[in-house]
Design goal:
With 98 residues, the protein is mainly alpha-helical. It folds into 2 domains: 31 residues, no CATH class; 66 residues, no CATH class. Helices cover 45% and strands 9% of the residues. The chain has a two-stranded antiparallel ribbon with strand order 1-2. The chain starts with a helix and ends with a strand.
Length: 98
């Protein structure tokens, strides 16, 4: 994370503040969650072709990145904003809780 901040185009003051936060933040702030998604099941549940959903999810991610530069969207990165975890349409499973 420190390397990412150091190589970013953030103004010096912002970079300094972020580095200070990263080096003093509680470790729990950096624990990620790991989810298992079945994209084909999501596509079937929603009755929408997977390629259409991926395009929508990709656009969601790009819109967020545009709002919060200097992030860069990775080739396999999507933002799914409405995953279901109730009823018969369970679309994800939490494997490791952060």
């Amino acid at each position: 994370m420190l390397r990412s901040i150091g190589s970013s185009s953030l103004p010096g003051g912002d970079a300094h503040n972020l580095k200070a936060h990263v080096t003093t933040a509680a470790l729990v702030e950096f624990r990620s969650e790991v989810w298992r998604l079945d994209l084909n099941k999501i596509s079937i549940n929603r009755g929408v072709p997977l390629n259409v959903l991926k395009t929508d999810w990709r656009n969601n991610a790009q819109n967020e990145i545009t709002k919060h530069p200097p992030q860069v969207l990775q080739p396999d990165e999507y933002l799914i904003q409405d995953l279901q975890q109730t009823g018969q349409n369970v679309e994800y499973e939490l494997i490791i809780e952060g």
